[in-house]
Write a structure and sequence with these properties.
With about 190 residues, the protein is of the alpha/beta class. It folds into 2 domains: about 5-85, no CATH class; about 90-190, no CATH class. It has 5 helices and 8 strands; from the N terminus they run E-H-E-E-H-E-E-E-E-H-H-E-H. The protein has a 3-stranded parallel β-sheet with strand order 3-4-5, with no helix packed on it. The chain has a 3-stranded antiparallel β-sheet with strand order 7-6-8. Helix 3 packs across helix 4 (about 140-150) and helix 4 crosses helix 5 (about 185-190). It is a multi-pass membrane protein. It comes from Prasinoderma singulare. InterPro entries: CER1-like_C. It is found in: Membrane.
Length: about 190
């Protein structure tokens, strides 16, 4: 909403909708619209999926829709006329041992960004979290801490693209770009879901 984009929020709870709407600046609140069924998203070509979304729900999206996923496990790709984003992921620090997670969906030593965020919070001893409403001013703080602890953006298999954000990244973890001003809003948003 901060960028002047109208957002349709799917929830049957009027209280939940109003609580989230009230977090927005007064001049942006009119841009958040409550929807109670997937069919109300029929005119939207960008869907941000935060919970399971089956074939019936995905059928409500118009052809050419891109599904951005922030739900674990990932949704099934049921539409050949739509595209699906990969879940944001990070590679574990080389020093991490005895971590067994996500191997059903990802290669060894790769974890969902939300799990990297949780581990970063534990390592830092923080009490805040990014479950539910998040403090957008802390996104870069969490991102920098994750990098400092040795987490690196995941590179998609067979290519030099970050699996979480699609930006080009170096194959060698030591050469992967750290958060720079030109990438700030792009990559750090992947960790926001952590």
């Amino acid at each position: 909403c901060r960028r002047g984009v109208r957002v349709r929020m799917l929830t049957s709870s009027r209280e939940r909708y109003e609580a989230i709407r009230d977090e927005a600046a007064p001049e942006h609140r009119h841009l958040l619209v409550q929807c109670t069924s997937h069919s109300e998203g029929g005119g939207c070509k960008t869907w941000i999926v935060g919970k399971l979304c089956g074939a019936k729900d995905q059928a409500c999206a118009p052809p050419g829709t891109h599904f951005h996923q922030v739900v674990v496990p990932p949704i099934e790709h049921t539409r050949s006329d739509c595209t699906y984003g990969e879940l944001a992921a990070m590679d574990l620090p080389p020093t991490a041992t005895d971590v067994k997670a996500c191997e059903l969906f990802m290669p060894r030593r790769r974890i969902f960004a939300c799990h990297a965020g949780a581990l970063t919070h534990m390592l830092e001893g923080w009490k805040h979290h990014e479950v539910g409403p998040i403090d957008v001013d802390r996104i870069d703080v969490v991102w920098e801490a994750a990098l400092r602890h040795g987490f690196t953006p995941a590179v998609a298999p067979g290519g030099a693209q970050c699996a979480g954000c699609g930006q080009l990244a170096a194959e060698d973890a030591a050469e992967r770009p750290r958060l720079g001003k030109q990438r700030e809003g792009h990559i750090s948003s992947a960790v926001a879901a952590a």
